């Protein structure tokens, strides 16, 4: 399925809209897409999707959350948490277009599809015991699983059920909002996607589609329309000024910017707070400072770590009391200004050195704090940044079009970039301006300090892992000690990035399978024969104690560990499935007891 880069991609998990039919389209889904201006990109239905959506707000993938996906009279429909998590996992691991948001229902009907239920809703079951009991809603189970495995993935509830009776539960589980299915508009849904969703900056001011950048942008969009003070933190060269401009322009309010590192100490007070005539030499007239000038708007203070302590005290007073006192004046003026603050320095360290007011830092930390990720944590964005910088230089200097060679891109992605985006930009501009007439930019065109980084790099992972170590048996299997040795010695070939890029999701799934096999082995070893169970009775607690080495481990913790391991893999082993099915209700009972105890304590 080809997705559009200009629209956010959302996952809708709903038993009504996620159904598929063998010979026709899901009319309920079509109606939802029309009503909410969504483009259906699921690709699971018979025939072509010919519905034209004017001014779409998002593209949606629909998932039933149940088995079977296509159900007929006589079929038994069951909830499928494993299938839900696999769909989420697959989309979340997509480095180019991860889920912007999950939208899910609360109540999912299970049971047999009867002639009567099928006549009401094609392919829908009659409903099973517990389906419509609020604290047993399948939607809540999905939320718990999302919170455990994907805590950074935003989700909202869209349901025709009343959310009031379980609003505490879904709020605690991380839902951003509850939208009534029949009482919401496309504008409301679009606002929630824009406000909470992980979507890139369409203006092109902030370049990046990696998850750290998308989460940063989501926080910045929320900050734009707030009057809370904002503290932007990040290493040098990460683009704190660009993010501040993004927030300032998005807010729509008047604003000014001050670079604290470029102002002499004796001018700070006048520039920020203003002065009256005669306040100091050459003060011939009255002047309003920047704070007064942006009353009702925003003031961006860059490099605040370079601001004198005395001036910091004035900023603290403005934040606390919403007032300023111009230099040389006895008059106190009321103001309403929101501060955006950027800092390269470690402000906590400056507090220890008595170069920054602790009370001011406390006030800033009480507001919105946005951490900009360093470039080494968002290397998937390097190709986008390189493309931008190359084309900017070509346009500025009137140069020919340069094709970017894979070896150059691999080298750039292998760097840690201590100077972050600014250093990368300088590197690319040097490469282009030094080679204006070449058709291809290649590794040799990079500055020497970058090329030298690769001297002496070794190739370790370039073949199947088991081929690098002597197998422990004739069938090629390796034991736990060999696996640990192998993992300790894994490195990655800097000259062949394509051989290992984008495989984080696969590594996680592979490790989840190893953990599952580890648990199965422990379950087999710890089984004890009894008169009732001659083949041995399963002992979850003993098995987990064995693999953790923790003899004091509680049964609750053991159950939690089995649930964690079991929910991440296909449970095709009978013993693993039995352990998981045994652990789930015990886990849920303990969770309910804990919630009730918490509720009583809160009262």
Describe this structure in words.
This protein is α/β, with parallel strands linked by helices and 603 residues long. The chain folds into 4 domains: 9-196, Response regulator (Rossmann fold), CATH 3.40.50; 211-373, 3-Layer(aba) Sandwich (Rossmann fold), CATH 3.40.50; 377-454, Orthogonal Bundle (Helicase, Ruva Protein, domain 3); 505-602, no CATH class. The protein has 22 helices and 18 strands. The protein has helices at 27-36, 81-92, 115-120, 138-149, 167-172, 186-196, 211-224, 240-251, 268-273, 290-293, 309-321, 347-352, 358-366, 382-397, 406-414, 420-434, 448-451, 480-488, 504-526, 540-548, 555-566, 574-602; strands at 9-13, 38-40, 58-63, 66-67, 76-79, 101-104, 111-112, 155-159, 178-180, 230-233, 255-259, 298-302, 323-324, 333-334, 338-343, 368-371, 403-404, 440-441. A 6-stranded parallel beta sheet has the order 2-3-1-6-8-9. Helix 2 (81-92) runs parallel beside helix 4 and helix 19 crosses helix 20 (540-548). The longest helix has 29 residues, at 574-602. The chain starts with 8 loop residues before the first strand and ends with a helix.
